[in-house]
Amino acid sequence: MTRPITAGVDGTGESLAAVHWAAREAVRRKLPLRVVHAWRYEESLAVADRGTQHGWVSQGVAEAVRAVRERHPELEVTSGVVEGEPAEVLADAGAQAEMLVLGSRGHGPLVGFLLGSVGRQVIAETVRPVVLVRAGDRPEAEAAGRDVVVGQHGGPEDSAAALRFAFEAAAARGATVRAVRAWTLPPVFAYSPGSLKLLDDAGGLEPYEKKALAEALRPWRERFPQVPVAEHVEMGSAGQVLLSLAGRAQLLVVGRRSHRTAVGARVGSVAHGVLHHAECPVAVVPHE
């Protein structure tokens, strides 16, 4: 079964940017596009009954679809207005999609994304990749010379899903994958220059990290020989290193492990950090 690329729309500028990003990605990957609005009847709007409110929403979805079809007449597009709790509706839609694309409100690099409880819950619970797109996203940002940046950590299996997504995205764009592995010093070495020199003389931690990244990339280089790859190993926190490279990226890809707490579902700290501060679209890919 062919999975569509699904975009959530709610009439806001950021969700419309997400729809257009999803449409371009669907054209690149030769996949259909589905546009979904998660709708709840608002009893507080006394001037409008259920049918009227549904009509307003349906009209907004139809306008978004019309705009996409004008730009991409060759693209197969379907749409739906689904009644229910937004996070549940979007998570269900994402589970049936190749990826789920959502808009995210941004107010500049210092304030970053305003995800809200719905966005956080959807990202944490959806079993497929979720891409967050800012309102200001433009096709020009996908120009040649901008990499698909992906974070890698642990062993080859730990980031396999994120690497697969990054290589597929780069292959569809004719872009370079910039694979990033950040590392920090073990506590025992943190304040001992002498110990660091001994490590360097023995090969050091950085060569070890470079070897680990190369091993993780090897199967994906073989599967996607046409995709150029740049390997980037840097000492520092993963979130900060990824953000330092995001300014010239057309897409930033991170893996995530979600967990539940007393206040609900949460994503990992790296995904949380880049979602709040990266200006390019961010793909959050669940670990397999």
Automatic annotation (TrEMBL):
Annotated UspA domain residues: 1-134, 153-286
InterPro entries: Rossmann-like_a/b/a_fold, Universal_stress_UspA, UspA
Family: Belongs to the universal stress protein A family.
Name this protein carries in UniProt: Universal stress protein
Organism for this UniProt entry: Streptomyces bungoensis
Top-level taxonomy: Bacteria, Bacillati, Actinomycetota, Actinomycetes, Kitasatosporales
